[in-house]
Recover the amino acids of this structure.
């Protein structure tokens, strides 16, 4: 057993509460689904889950803790993350309306949003600190499994629940946004809308105070 069953109800309750709090991941996934449809939202959700798995592995191996204890490393992550998001914002905003993809040809855009979701989360220092501070709280000394193994199991459970929640969000927002995707005026400005979303995420990261 790699998760203490006595702590599991508290852990699950805490994870659900955290998932319901609006954050940058929710904004990116919801706006992707609204602007480009459910397929793109699904890819963005899997991109977020991929970055979560990477952060879980880094936390289990202790790498995240080493980075989190280094103020210069955290500051570098913050600047790189903000700069990356600003570049994505600029790429979207400068796109012409004719660049807005047809609904039936979204595969390349979906893969692009997958990569952007992965990178935006990995370059967010607060996401890294979250895994360092959150998972160890539920590591039990009553189990024979090492702390790294327990953190891996807890992180995998967190990511599975997060992916399920995000896919439900995509289904809901995608359904609400379907009429917009059939609106030519909206489709002409959908890239601009996503550019504003990436700009907001960049400001969120650059303006945040990261403490190790």
């Amino acid at each position: 057993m790699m998760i203490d069953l006595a702590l599991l109800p508290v852990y699950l309750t805490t994870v659900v509460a955290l998932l319901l709090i609006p954050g940058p991941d929710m904004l990116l996934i919801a706006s992707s689904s609204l602007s480009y449809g459910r397929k793109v939202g699904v890819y963005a959700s899997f991109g977020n889950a991929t970055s979560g798995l990477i952060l879980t592995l880094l936390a289990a191996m202790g790498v995240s803790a080493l980075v989190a204890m280094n103020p210069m490393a955290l500051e570098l992550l913050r600047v790189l993350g903000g700069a990356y998001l600003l570049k994505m914002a600029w790429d979207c905003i400068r796109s012409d309306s004719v660049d807005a993809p047809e609904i039936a040809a979204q595969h390349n855009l979906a893969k692009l949003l997958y990569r952007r979701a992965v990178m935006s989360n990995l370059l967010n220092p607060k996401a890294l600190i979250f895994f360092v501070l959150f998972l160890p709280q539920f590591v039990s000394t009553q189990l024979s499994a090492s702390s790294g193994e327990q953190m891996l199991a807890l992180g995998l459970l967190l990511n599975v629940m997060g992916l399920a929640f995000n896919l439900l969000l995509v289904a809901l927002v995608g359904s609400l946004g379907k009429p917009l995707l059939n609106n030519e005026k909206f489709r002409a400005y959908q890239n601009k809308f996503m550019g504003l979303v990436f700009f907001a995420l960049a400001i969120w990261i650059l303006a945040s105070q990261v403490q190790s």
Remarks:
- The mean pLDDT is 83.
